[in-house]
UniProtKB/TrEMBL annotation:
InterPro entries: HAD-like_hydrolase, HAD-like_sf, HAD-SF_hydro_IA, HAD_sf. Gene3D superfamilies: HAD superfamily/HAD-like, Haloacid dehalogenase hydrolase-like domain. SUPFAM superfamilies: HAD-like. This is Hydrolase. It comes from Microbispora corallina. Its cofactor is Mg(2+). GO terms for molecular function: hydrolase activity. It holds the Pfam family Hydrolase. Keywords: Hydrolase, Magnesium.
Amino acid sequence: MTIRGVLFDVDDTIFDYSSSEETGLIGHLTAEGLLDAFPSPAEAVAVWRQIMEEEYARCLAGELTFAEQQRVRTRRFLTHAGRLADGGMSDAEAAVWFERYGGHREAAWAAFPDADPVLRKLAPAFRLGVVSNSSLSHQRRKLRRVGLLDHFGEAVLCSLEHGTSKPDPAIFLAGCALLGLPPHQVAYVGDRYDIDALGARAAGLRSYWLDRAATGTAVVDGVTVVHSLDDLALDLIPGN
Ligand SMILES: [Mg+2]
């Protein structure tokens, strides 16, 4: 089966989301005088991530807008830290607090070192695109900032604009359509086994699960495990 296109997840696949989130949060909490509200910086990051997972899922389900989930995360986190003033926090105050966090996080934005070289390697032989559970303006800005956007041209698809999110097959198929290719000619790579690897497989794409931590997790037939984007390039272009 000839693969002619490759679709990428963004966060923690080509873009180092977790590192920028951790560095940004710790920098922000230090600046706000909030770090001592937690037993350790790692605990603060763990709480922030747990709240993010829950509220971002509600955003993807259409219960909260992108901006609302930011404000809800802010209030929940400050409540957990015991630092939410009596009477709560207005929308404007919560938005500004999150914006200050965003400034610290954006200062730490970075692509994974293997992303740009592999995209350059694949570009001559494959049509390249993105399918991400996020907002288009946010992801395009992020990819532009870290120098990856030009690899994808207009083939950047995000769930908030598309209306369904991974692992729904519809968004993978829409990504293939953006590349002008049928799903059996398209590979997908992402770091989440459930939503990326199993979702792409169910939609009929060639599915690669990026397990950067090399966890050794067993996978079902039809999912290929790679530990880096270099592994992906090697599988798609043997001997490159
Ligand atoms: Mg991801």
